[in-house]
Design brief:
Length: 146
């Protein structure tokens, strides 16, 4: 059973936030029930905020902090227009930064900075291996687990 494509008040086709499969799943779950729509929104909000907070925690702890923050924003963007706008702006800024970094006039600077970072990481790893060997005992001792 195909549902007709919803439209806005102006008559133009409605473009739902988020992937189409998620919109269809939400429509199937919520139907015309206000209570089910509220439950769906609470679940999406709780999940999105939880992922964003975990991402913020991962900025200082090991883990993919920024990726989790963007994933949480994507979940929130399925329900909130402000999160969708923030996600679009963030994506545009990231694409602009990437294109700027790989632009021909900035390529030399990007290669030099990348080389410096790689050399610093290699120096830190070399120092760690020299000092503690190939075990995790040194790092565990830093946090009192050794």
């Amino acid at each position: 059973m195909n549902d007709p494509v919803p439209s806005t008040e102006e008559g133009e086709p409605f473009d739902p936030p988020g992937p189409d499969w998620l919109y269809r799943l939400r429509q199937r779950f919520t139907g015309h029930s206000a209570l089910r729509r509220l439950v769906w929104r609470v679940l999406a909000t709780t999940l999105g905020v939880g992922i964003v907070l975990a991402g913020v925690g991962m900025l200082v702890l090991p883990g993919p902090g920024w990726a989790a923050i963007f994933l949480g924003l994507a979940v929130l963007a399925t329900e909130y227009a402000w999160a969708h706008r923030l996600l679009v702006v963030t994506k545009d800024k990231a694409q602009g930064a990437a294109s700027s970094a790989f632009a021909p006039e900035n390529r030399r600077r990007t290669v030099v900075l990348t080389s410096i970072v790689v050399l610093l990481v290699a120096a830190i790893v070399s120092w760690y291996v020299y000092r503690y060997g190939w075990s995790a005992g040194g790092a565990l001792g830093w946090v009192g687990l050794n």
